[in-house]
Amino acid sequence: MNITEEIQARVIDNLDYAFPAKPKPLSEPERAAYIARIEQLLKEKNAVLVAHYYTDPEIQALAEATGGCVSDSLEMARFGANHEADTLIVAGVKFMGETAKILTPNKTVLMPTLEATCSLDIGCPIEEFSAFCDEHPDRTVVVYANTSAAVKARADWVVTSSIALDIVDHLDANGEKILWGPDKHLGNYIQKQTGADMIMWQGACVVHDEFKTKALEDLKRVYPEAAILVHPESPAQVVEMADAVGSTSQLIKASQELPNETFIVATDRGIFYKMQQLSPEKHFIEAPTAGSGATCRSCAHCPWMAMNGLVAIAEALEHGGASHEIHVDPQLAERAMKPLQRMLNFKKNS
Ligand code: 13P
Ligand code: SF4
């Protein structure tokens, strides 16, 4: 182990996930009142709701009903950047809000809570990651979007899971050697698919890291006709069992296109809302997070995505301020914009 590998191991081993409390459940009349209030506030503030597929179904439904967007992290970035609203309210996790702010510095970017983080972001602090990069100056630094603005600013490219394979393939064809961070499972999957020369930061997603092969094999025996859909943030042995591997939007597409009637889905269960909406006749089952070695810290639902509730959205729109508004240091944003823009341009040109 060299010095930065040791630092990495220390960072990853000592991570302490203090999982946040979920929003308090609302009664039906309360829900209806909050939805009506949010609809009114969106109009008053010329704001648009941009939600990730992992948020709770009622948040996704509200984004759709109000002309907002429900999508993967790449499309969230695009939608926010191209929309004419003065204010973006981003229901997701913090890196999604920061990405929106970096791409549209003149807009007000609000989030239901600024405490909705991501284990990949937490597990990749800028000082240690920067030291890792400094040790490998010959490598092109490619970072996943699930990182802080500072880590993005240190990178040559930012990618999301729906575009990572194409970009790494392109860099590999150019003869570039890659330093990848932070998700080790996604990095290993891309390395296997492209054959690129990659070294990895050792981060992991607390949700996808929990999927278990043994329990998945048992479930597959119960539903032998089911297709298995897996997000590549999952461990390699789980990915190997998949009929389709991909980003959230790619998995949704696979659920529509594959002929199977039943699907076992290894990603956050929030995605079932869109899958079921697009294929009402199909049957979707959560991949198991139980079994040997399981802690069920996540149980297939990102604890930070779960923080995006109606009360917090209404409060963010009504009051904004320090607990809701995203700010990114302008100099950092300028540097982070370059690798982000590279990703958006790459997709446009491909
Ligand atoms: P997507 O880029 O596929 O939306 O995934 C984001 C994410 O956080 C997955 O856990
Ligand atoms: Fe991060 Fe995992 Fe939550 Fe996605 S599901 S936001 S990678 S912790």
UniProtKB/TrEMBL annotation:
Known catalytic reactions: iminosuccinate + dihydroxyacetone phosphate = quinolinate + phosphate + 2 H2O + H(+)
Binding site for iminosuccinate: 52, 73, 144-146, 161, 231-233, 248
Obligatory cofactor(s): [4Fe-4S] cluster
GO CC, one annotated term: cytosol
Example of a GO biological process term: 'de novo' NAD+ biosynthetic process from L-aspartate
A Pfam family this chain is assigned to: NadA
Compartments where found: Cytoplasm
Enzyme class: transferase
Keyword Metal-binding: yes
EC nos: 2.5.1.72
Keyword terms: 4Fe-4S, Cytoplasm, Iron, Iron-sulfur, Metal-binding, Pyridine nucleotide biosynthesis, Transferase
Free-text comment on the cofactor: Binds 1 [4Fe-4S] cluster per subunit.
Keyword check for Iron-sulfur: yes
Binding site for [4Fe-4S] cluster: 118, 205, 302
GO molecular function, one term: metal ion binding
Pathway: Cofactor biosynthesis; NAD(+) biosynthesis; quinolinate from iminoaspartate: step 1/1
Function text: Catalyzes the condensation of iminoaspartate with dihydroxyacetone phosphate to form quinolinate.
Sequence similarity: Belongs to the quinolinate synthase family. Type 1 subfamily.
Protein name as annotated: Quinolinate synthase
Annotated gene: nadA
